[in-house]
Amino acid sequence: MNLLKEFSLNDKCSYLENHEQTTHYKIINSCTTSVCQELIERGYRRFGKMYFRPVCSDCNECQSIKIDVENYSFSKSAKRVLKKAKDIQKYIQHPTMSQEHLELFEKYHLHMHQKKGWEHTTTTADHYYGSFVLGHEEFGYEVLYYDDNKLIGVDLIDILDDGISSIYFYYDPDYSHLSLGKLSLYNQIKYAKESQKKWIYLGYYVEECPSLSYKQMYKPYLTLQGRPDISEAYVWTT
After folding, report:
1. Helices (H), 56-202
2. Which is deepest, 55, 101, 133, 227, by most CB within 10 Å?
3. Are 233 and 225 in contact (CB under 8 A)?
4. Cα separation, 102 vs 39, whole angstroms
5. Please, what are the domains in the chain?
């Protein structure tokens, strides 16, 4: 592991109002799939070359969860979402950046700012590239969703040895009727089943955070116990 830098920062909590957050970071150059796997299994998330996880001393609200793919069954409503989007095209490739990406990213976040009160700052090409393109190595991908020739959704994922790590999804709010967020996750599960991968790593479930609480709907799932170091064993339980 080519570790460039390791540090912790205290800041306002990203998920809960009136809370502070301590986050541990590892900046890794040329990370391998196996090292990424080991970090994700221990509760880290990846943006670019940056791997991070909350390590707050007095709060355990951020719970790392992963969907048990083998035992997941698509509900009738899930099948309706998949059927409704049957004419939407999707393509998978290593992450890229275009003006189309940036405009869609901006449109989505303005929508979420108005709908849910998300903080909003217009992203730059450098910020987008550093967060979603840089550091993808051989395991990072984007799934592009198109309506004819129009980009309407981007799903950023890592395809690991035993599962898929969901990084970030954004979409065109004009297509909200297609439930694109659910669609992207259902397609991850379908791909994992077809590839005989065991898990979808969903990141953090926070019960009191509306943007993250939805994750508990995707059952069965397992929860990571504690905050194991890279050299320590990890335990996921139901």
Report:
1. 76-84, 99-116, 125-128, 180-194
2. 101
3. no
4. 29
5. 68-199 (3.40.630.30)
How far apart CA 70 and CA 231 sit, in angstroms, is 28
Nearest alpha carbon to residue 129 among 164, 89, 99, 171: 99
pTM tops 0.85? yes
Determine if the peptide bond prior to 173 is cis (ω within 30°): no
**DSSP assignment of 32-94:** -HHHHHHHHHTT-EEETTEEEEE--TT----EEEEEESTT----HHHHHHHHHTTT-EEEEES
Tell me how far CA of residue 221 lies from CA of 74, 78, 200, 202, 206, in angstroms: 14, 17, 9, 10, 14
Q: What is the widest separation between alpha-carbon atoms in the chain?
A: 49
Nearest C-alpha neighbor of 17 from the set 224, 206, 217:
206
Q: Which two tokens stand for residue 211?
A: 């943007």
pLDDT for 93 equals: 98
Distance CA 206, CA 16 (A): 9
Chain mean pLDDT for the chain: 96
- The alpha carbon of residue 134 and the mean position of all alpha carbons in its chain are separated, in whole angstroms, by 16
C-beta separation of 205 from 216 below 8 A? yes
Residue 1 confidence (pLDDT): 77
Give the SS3 label for residue 178: helix
- CB hemisphere CA count around 10 (13 angstroms): 5
Two tokens, residue 74: 């698509």
